[in-house]
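An instance noted here:
***
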Amino acid sequence: MGKLQEQMKADLSLKRYSPHTIRAYLHCIRNFAKYFMRPPAEMGETEVRQFMLHLAQDRKVSAFVQTMHVNALKFLYRERGDALK
């Protein structure tokens, strides 16, 4: 995920996201990839839903943490979608 991570970091910076938000979003994307042991390019809506259920039901994360993961994944698949193909 190295190249994708660097590209996402650059895109977040260009959109003037704070350094803290950039680190948090990248952490969320790493969690997502690690959970499935596959790169984000190989996954889609089904995996996102499964991961979000895992966060809510198994890990019982706060609403804030869940929303942060949702926003990171939205950014990844909407803004970086072309890079995933």
Notes: Residues 19-36 form the longest helix (18 residues). The chain is about 80% helix and 0% strand. The chain has a mean pLDDT of 92.
